[in-house]
Design a protein that fits this description.
Blueprint lengths: L8 E5 L6 H11 L3 E3 L3 E2 L14 E2 L2 H9 L3 E8 L2 E6 H9 L3 E5 L2 H11 L3 E7 L3 H11 L4 H15 L7 E4 L3 H17 L1
Parallel strand pairs: 1-7, 1-8, 2-7, 3-4, 8-9
Antiparallel strand pairs: 3-6, 5-6
Helix pairs in contact: 1-7, 5-6
The protein binds guanosine-5'-monophosphate.
Guanosine-5'-monophosphate binds next to strand 5 and strand 6.
Length: 192
């Protein structure tokens, strides 16, 4: 890797349903320097997800053991009884492989990691033009139960308050435009 990219990392955070995962996957395809930071979670595996690809799916007990053993760079109880965490070992594994880690994490975790890494981190916040658009997208996605949709929509106003801790915001209105904007921002950061 270019020495200028040593110790850098990219954080992408957004309220659920903002198109964050699509944008992160596009960036991973576009920039071979980036490496996906695989998180642990105790949530149920969704249809189409693969253990070890999307997340490492573990039990609540195993998650709590990892917390007690100080294995996380950061972790959050993003929804009640649903934990997600970035293992410290992921960051070192990626950096040793010459990659710039890209973290797809919630807005609280994202702002905390930004505070830890300062200028070495580029923190990108993604949002939809309105909460109504976001709710519609969650419904169209058809991966969530009604209960999960309500839980996620209820959290959005609080999540939007974290935008100020991020370096840049991308408004995901037309997906193609959001992808180009994300590419432009990452290219600039990797070349700095
Ligand atoms: P989902 O259940 O939709 O996969 O993820 C819910 C939220 O948890 C998303 O905002 C996702 O980015 C976030 N998340 C995933 N991994 C982590 C992590 O390691 N740490 C934190 N703080 N949030 C995470």
């Amino acid at each position: 890797m270019d020495s200028k990219n040593l110790d850098k990392l990219v954080i992408v955070s957004a309220p659920s349903g903002s198109g964050k995962t699509t944008i992160v996957n596009h960036l991973l395809k576009t920039f071979e320097q980036l490496g996906f930071s695989l998180s642990y979670t105790n949530r149920e595996i969704r249809k189409g997800e693969v253990d070890g690809v999307n997340y490492r799916f573990i039990s609540t007990q195993e998650f709590k053991k990892l917390i007690a053993d100080d294995m996380f760079l950061e972790w959050e109880e993003v929804y009640k009884n649903t934990f997600y965490g970035t293992p410290l070992s992921e960051i070192s594994r990626l950096q040793e492989a010459g990659k710039v880690p890209i973290l797809d994490i919630d807005v609280v975790g994202g702002s905390n990691v930004k505070k830890m890494f300062g200028d070495k981190a580029l923190a990108v916040f993604i949002k939809t033009p309105s909460i109504e658009v976001l709710e519609q997208r969650l419904r169209n996605r058809k991966t969530e139960t009604e209960e999960s949709i309500i839980k996620r929509v209820n959290k959005v106003s609080l999540e939007l308050e974290y935008e100020k801790y991020f370096d840049v915001t991308i408004i995901n209105d037309v997906l193609g435009d959001a992808l180009s904007e994300a590419e432009r921002i990452i290219k600039q950061f990797l070349n700095e």
